Amino acid sequence: MRQKFLVLGIGNVLFADEGIGVHLTHYLQQKYRIEGPHQLDFVDGGTLAHALIPMIAQYDQLLVIDTVHSTQGAVGNVYFFDFDKVPHHIDFQGSAHEVEMLQTLNMMEMVGDRPPTHILGVIPEVLEAMSFELSGSVRRAVPLMEQAFCDHLRAQGFTLTQQADPDIIELARQACDQEASHEIAV
């Protein structure tokens, strides 16, 4: 049976490392041609959290890419886990949007609308306002995050073929430039 998979990048691109979920989503979308037995959609969820509920509820599987906080980890550590089995040291308190996303997923669970969910996250270093650069620690974590993403999709029956070699730093700059020009125009 054909299922609908959603890859949801979460984060604020204007706060340095906090934008990695959005940046990595764009990076993976550009880098790979993905084919398989299921529908696969990528969405830049930004910091919308609760506003994403109607869209998320339409999917059979969810993969959230975001920053995470761990009481045991170090900056740049990558985590991939089933949301129903969150490791005890992950507490989602690295930023306001993480708490909102956690609340969103928990609310969806309470009413039975949350699809099976996996989290792909990295511990951020820099969460500064109006800093458009990803830290070195998070940039170095990108290949491991990419590998976890690819392994997960392959396990679901997808085929990933590299079609480009995007630069995540340049993608991050472009996203921040677009966001900054949007903020000025509003």
Percent helix, as a range, is: 25-40%
Cα-to-Cα separation, first versus last residue: 44 Å
Task: Give the name of the CATH architecture.
Answer: 3-Layer(aba) Sandwich
The strand count comes to 7
- The strand line-up of the biggest sheet is 3-1-4-6-5
The name of the CATH superfamily reads HybD-like
Q: Kindly report the CATH topology.
A: Rossmann fold
Radius of gyration: 16 Å
Number of helices: 5
> What is the beta-strand fraction?
15-25%
The helix/strand order is EHEEHEEHEHEH
Sum up the overall morphology in one term: globular
User: How many structural domains does the protein architecture include?
Assistant: 1
Question: In CATH's first tier, which class applies?
Answer: Alpha Beta
Q: Report the mean per-residue pLDDT as an integer.
A: 89
Which runs of at least 5 residues are low in confidence (pLDDT < 50)? none
The helix/strand class is: alpha/beta
Largest sheet: 5 strands, mixed
Structural overview:
The structure is a single chain. By secondary structure, the protein is of the alpha/beta class. It has one domain (4-82, 101-185): HybD-like (Rossmann fold, 3-Layer(aba) Sandwich), CATH 3.40.50. It is 37% helix and 22% strand. The chain is built from 5 helices and 7 strands, in the order βαββαββαβαβα. The strands form 2 sheets. Strands 3-1-4-6-5 form a 5-stranded mixed beta sheet, sandwiched between helices. A two-stranded antiparallel ribbon has the order 2-7. Helix 1 (20-31) crosses helix 5. The protein is globular, with a radius of gyration of 16 Å. It starts with a strand and ends with a helix. The relative contact order is 0.24. The model has no long low-confidence stretch (mean pLDDT 89).
